Amino acid sequence: MKPADARERRDERPDGTPLRLTWKWRSIALLVIALVNLCRWRVRVHDLHHVPPRDGAVLAFNHHSYLDFVMVAWAPVRRLRRPVRFLAKREIWGSRWLGWLVRAAEAVPVDRQSSVARAGAFDAAAAALRRGDLVAVAPEQTISRSFELLPLRTGAVRMAQAAGVPVVPVVGWGSQRIATKGRLPRPAFGTPVVVRYGPPLHVGADEDPVAATARLAAAMDALLDEVVREYVDGTPAGAWWVPARHGGGAPDHAEVVRDHTSRTRRWDGGSGGQGDATP
Asked: What confidence tens digit (pLDDT) does each residue in 47-77 have?
């Protein structure tokens, strides 16, 4: 076994090896497993075989709760013994509750207010992918209050294209009932949570990132619709955590998209475009 300092090397790894399960990652995993068991959340993972067991890949996931990062990494860490590097907004680093977590997990900070910082995050993520890391990205950038997909940014496919690795669409469902935007977190004992991985998408070196992102959005939307329809607790009429198009009480999707588009323009300094390298 390699000495601890070799196992814990970060972006300075001179041998180009992918990130390993350090003692910090193992500690995080134990805490998460204890929390899931305590709350008796019923986590079900489908089609993990779509995630490369050793090579690099972008895991593009839908963002509908504050627990998405836990659920996306749940199976890769426990079954494949692979850590997952997340792109997370820089504000989390200053959080009393989550700052230690993103640092221990070696997440890549993203400053949405700075185009230079965003480009730096993109380069760091692409370098990690070339080394063989799994990098998780929420292309929507923020939690969707409608629990449907918001317009995707092109960063996920761009970094996959730059590193020559596939994009694996990932859809989670159920964890919005535990912790999501605009609602107080609650234990929600026994809540079923589903995570499904879709077939990898390969982005050609000359492919238009906007077109590739449209392919990714279509794949994620189809996966999400399938997961929602098959959810063990169904889609109760009027339930706040069910999308409006499924008869639920979640906010109207068109209105949520309009609000999101307005915020995106502010992040982009007024451009609102998706053709940059924003992760």
From this structure: 999 999 999 999 999 999 999 988 999 999 9
The Cα–Cα gap between 71 and 67 comes to 6
| CA separation, residue 208 to residues 94, 203, 205 (Å) | 36, 9, 9
**Looking up tokens 């013994």, which residue turns up?**
81
At the second CATH level, the architecture of 16-176+188-267 is: 3-Layer(aba) Sandwich (3.40)
CA-based nearest residue to 132, from 56, 50, 21: 56
Domain boundaries, the chain: 16-176+188-267
Mean pLDDT of the chain: 86
